[in-house]
Design a protein that fits this description.
The chain is an all-alpha fold. It is built from two helices and no strands.
Length: 67
C-alpha cells in the first residue's frame, strides 16, 4: 500500500480559489436579494381577489381550492 503525500496549495492556487469564491458569493448574494424581493411581493398578494386583481374569479377559486 503506497501513501501519496499531498502538498498544500500554493499561494497562486489559493488566490485563484479566493477569487472564484468571491465571484460565487456575489452571485449568491444577488440571487438572495432577488428571492427576498419576490417573497415580499408574494406575501403582499394573498389579500387580492377578483375585484382588486387582474385574475378572473374562476382562476382565484381554482387557486383557493389548493389544487
Amino acid at each position: 500500500m503506497s501513501v501519496t503525500a499531498t502538498l498544500p496549495p500554493s499561494a497562486e492556487e489559493l488566490a485563484v480559489l479566493v477569487a472564484e469564491l468571491r465571484s460565487e458569493l456575489a452571485v449568491v448574494r444577488t440571487e438572495l436579494a432577488e428571492a427576498k424581493a419576490r417573497i415580499v411581493d408574494l406575501e403582499a398578494r394573498p389579500g387580492q381577489n377578483s375585484t382588486n386583481s387582474s385574475r378572473p374569479p374562476s382562476t382565484l377559486r381554482f387557486l383557493a381550492s389548493g389544487a
